[in-house]
Amino acid sequence: MGSADSKLNFRKAVIQLTTKTQPVEATDDAFWDQFWADTATSVQDVFALVPAAEIRAVREESPSNLATLCYKAVEKLVQGAESGCHSEKEKQIVLNCSRLLTRVLPYIFEDPDWRGFFWSTVPGAGRGAQGEDDDENARPLAESLLLAIADLLFCPDFTVQSHRRSTVDSAEDIHSLDSCEYIWEAGVGFAHSPQPNYNHDMNRMELLKLLLTCFSEAMYLPPAPDSSSVNPWVQFFCSTENRHALPLFTSLLNTVCAYDPVGYGIPYNHLLFSDYREPLVEEAAQVLIVTLDHDGATPTVDGTTTGTAMDDADPPGPENLFVNYLSRIHREEDFQFILKGIARLLSNPLLQTYLPNSTKKIQFHQELLVLFWKLCDFNKKFLFFVLKTSDVLDILVPILYFLNDARADQSRVGLMHIGVFILLLLSGERNFGVRLNKPYSVRVPMDIPVFTGTHADLLIVVFHKIITSGHQRLQPLFDCLLTIVVNVSPYLKSLSMMAANKLLHLLEAFSTTWFLFSAAQNHHLVFFLLEVFNNIIQYQFDGNSNLVYAIIRKRSVFHQLANLPTDPPTIHKALQRRRRAPEALSRTSSQEGVSMEGSHPAAPAEPGTLKTSLVATPGIEKLTEKSQVSEDGTLRSLEPAPQQNSAEGSPASEEPSQAWREQRRLSSASAGGQWNPTSEWVLSWKSKLPLQTIMRLLQVLVPQVEKICIDKGLTDESEILRFLQHGTLVGLLPVPHPILIRKYQANSGTAMWFRTYMWGVIYLRNVDPPVWYDTDVKLFEIQRV
């Protein structure tokens, strides 16, 4: 039958379904088969021929027909999984049912009255022997559907290569088949790389799209503050009920990490061969991150996993087997494979060779960043492996590239956040700071001034650019950005002059009176920067003459801070100035050099770009936990135990945390909710500004530098720098303070943020076919820039 005919027949069936007011019997195969038996419709056809309005009309006006359609389509998938899909006709039926369910499911989820439908039992679909009408044993429709999808993903000659030696052998029995021998790609726990097969990839992709659609019920629930709501679809699919959980987890992970979009190193190769692997890799990445959406709060059960790639020594992990397997990967070669794969893919958009468009540009870097986050968060051995060598810089540079590139684009706020969260997580480990000292020589075209220096300089220059020329919605990230710099500062051996100037420029901008007084939290930024300077002076004075010189040149800023006015009239006057020039922060002059060759300025979003809303992220005090570094390098938490009275001064009481609690009390917010700083409030934190070390440094060095200038009539900085390089402050500075690290700590706020961000990305990236477009999602709002 021609495809035009089959589309016509399919369309006729849809029209009949919407116009029949009487329920159609489930046994009326002649009617139901029109939807899948003799049609060859692509997924795009199904979306075009089954309009949203008609699905909603059937749902409202003849609900029993919609229920029967779903039930029959699932039944066909179950039959296909049972039989092993040997004939072409069976394969076509499975694909047609899969496409139809992908089309219809979002409209089931969108209506609260229908949400339980797939979890209700269907008479006759027993868990036990077939055909028993024993309702005790009946399986909910959702479970039957998920198990059928799992079976079909390891179906010989349909989604995996058959291992049969000859056609004489009987068909491989799908029930006794060991799917661990059919893993899709070499990598973790599997050494054999199967022959690429276009049809198998396409069939896997369709089934994974259906699986992702099943999981997407989460999009139709509003964000819950406690985030503990478990997705029943994911929970069942990742449980021991799914006998393919391990091979499927491994297949998804290996498919993503083994993917090489460059076209095997041949420039322009992607223009000659359409890369059918990319859509599968993208789908695999999306399914993987959704199965790993787990906030670690569920009780653990006995480990029931096998497989040598997993670490059996650890205590049994969470019930979600995908999270469990991920957390137990432990072999160095597996870590290397994963890290190299993710770094290769994240660097792909940066590969600007001399031949523009010579490499295929992948679009799923946000999914990869979520995956990398999950790996580091659930598998501490992986995190330590990442930081063990300078390979971590292959992750850092792409993240800095994305942050810099997205800083002016309102539609990419989510990307900015996840990039910063990953760097915050890494910065809690000493090794990250140490690795940053490696010279930066890769010349990725970036819209930043050209400089010579280390990866630490690159990080500071990019952060400065985000703070001074990003858009307004990034302000909540300033605390995080500076916390990262504080965390790495004790380990930075030698900042370049450019990075030193950028840090002092930030201090200048943040310590103007109008900025300090115009919001309750702004002074924290000054505390963070002073902490950075103190760490470097106390722990890395030798080698940091550039920073010392910059501090001496800008010494007036420190004197102004020490003499910050606290009288009401001056505070009032500063705020008047603020109301006249609200934009002043980002536009304060900073000597910008020429941007790198080949770079494009960070552009705002095109008008009309779609974006999804995000829940607010917790403040830095909730996001991190303070730890003190002891002499031997070990960390000691400084967080007060919950039962202690927090008034007792902990070693961290010099920190702004005391002031955080104070300022709520002292700031008299006026009736209009307008922030109104008082003298008491300013005094409460001004007295805690950690200026002693810097003031002592200035007291010792400024007269010496001035003397050199007068004696030698010097205006040349290189001479002064040479003097500072050989100078020493041993015995002249206050006793070094203990190093404080603020480590990221998991919390329900970020768990919910990740859920909304991840589903927002998936919603926007699935446009062909537009699976969720124009349905009533509740987890986020769709907005136009």
From TrEMBL:
Residue span of region Disordered: 569-610, 625-675
Residue stretches in coiled coil: none
Domain of life: Eukaryota
Pfam name, any one: Hid1
CC terms in the record's Gene Ontology section: cytoplasmic microtubule; cytoplasmic side of Golgi membrane; cytosol; Golgi medial cisterna; Golgi trans cisterna
GO biological process: insulin processing; response to glucose; secretory granule maturation; vacuole fusion, non-autophagic
InterPro entries in the record: Hid-1/Ecm30
Residue stretches of biased makeup (Polar residues): 666-675
Comp. bias (Low complexity): 646-657
PANTHER family recorded: PROTEIN HID1 (PTHR21575)
Protein name: HID1 domain containing
Originating species: Balaenoptera musculus (Blue whale)
